């Protein structure tokens, strides 16, 4: 699935391992373990679709295609190169997320935020924690992709319906959703479809968020945590 994660050109080479992912996932029993087999596969495809976009090293003419290059990066720098906007598979950022995530998984991420970029199990746990945890007014990505979320009348009016597109809205809707066609959203969908195809599961409905109103400014990618 993560064909080029250990490529010599990838800064994260050697970091993201299967064993670390399994160890982290075991701390969240409902992750990839809700609903029927197709639902479980689709959730894994959605998780890796979103996290692969956040860590991609791909480009349009990349060997094996741009969607074979997930998990190439571990840290995301701002344009000046002086601060980190995010760490780990889902590029977790903001003191709010580091504090709540650390409390949930039992480590001090406020004082030791770089654990997300130096300990592979903690890194995966941070991503799965964000995936599993609703942050009002947003539901959790887990509940959306496993059809355990029922949109309110306000959600329906805003175009936020069950499907992968609403997961994108949860993660970075403030920057990517409700803007019409968007290359970042397309990239997320491309990864998702690749993993669904590998796992032999359908994509479901409502893959994009082009016409969705964002839930609000994302707490994931809009501000650095240093």
UniProtKB/TrEMBL annotation:
Keyword list, A-Z: Chitin-binding, Disulfide bond, Plant defense
Keyword Transport: no
Domain spans labelled Glycoside hydrolase family 19 catalytic: 10-32, 122-132
GO aspect biological process, one term: chitin catabolic process
InterPro entries: Glyco_hydro_19 (IPR016283), Glyco_hydro_19_cat (IPR000726), Lysozyme-like_dom_sf (IPR023346)
UniProt organism field: Vigna mungo
GO molecular function, a single term: chitinase activity
Active site: 54
S-S bonds: 10-72, 177-209
Residues forming coiled coils: none
Pfam families reported for this sequence: Glyco_hydro_19
PROSITE patterns in alphabetical order: CHITINASE_19_1 (PS00773), CHITINASE_19_2 (PS00774)
Name this protein carries in UniProt: Glycoside hydrolase family 19 catalytic domain-containing protein
Family annotation (CDD domains): chitinase_GH19
Keyword Zinc applies: no
């Amino acid at each position: 699935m993560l064909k080029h994660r250990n490529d010599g050109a990838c800064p994260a080479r050697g970091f993201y391992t299967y064993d670390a992912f399994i160890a982290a996932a075991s701390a969240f029993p409902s992750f990839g373990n809700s609903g029927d087999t197709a639902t479980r596969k689709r959730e894994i495809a959605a998780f890796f679709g979103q996290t692969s976009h956040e860590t991609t090293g791909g480009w349009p003419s990349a060997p094996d295609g741009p969607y074979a290059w997930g998990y190439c990066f571990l840290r995301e720098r701002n344009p000046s190169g002086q601060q980190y906007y995010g760490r780990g598979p889902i590029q977790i950022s903001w003191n709010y997320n580091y504090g709540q995530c650390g409390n949930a998984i039992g480590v001090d991420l406020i004082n030791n935020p770089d654990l997300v970029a130096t300990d592979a199990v903690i890194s995966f746990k941070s991503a799965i924690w964000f995936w599993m945890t609703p942050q009002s007014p947003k539901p959790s990505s887990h509940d959306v992709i496993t059809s355990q979320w029922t949109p309110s009348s306000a959600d329906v009016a805003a175009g936020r319906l069950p499907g992968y597109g609403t997961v994108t809205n949860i993660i970075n809707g403030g920057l990517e959703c409700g803007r019409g066609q968007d290359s970042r959203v397309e990239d997320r969908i491309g990864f998702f479809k690749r993993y669904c195809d590998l796992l032999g599961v359908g994509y479901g409905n409502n893959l994009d968020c082009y016409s969705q109103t964002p839930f609000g400014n994302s707490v994931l990618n809009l501000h650095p945590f240093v």
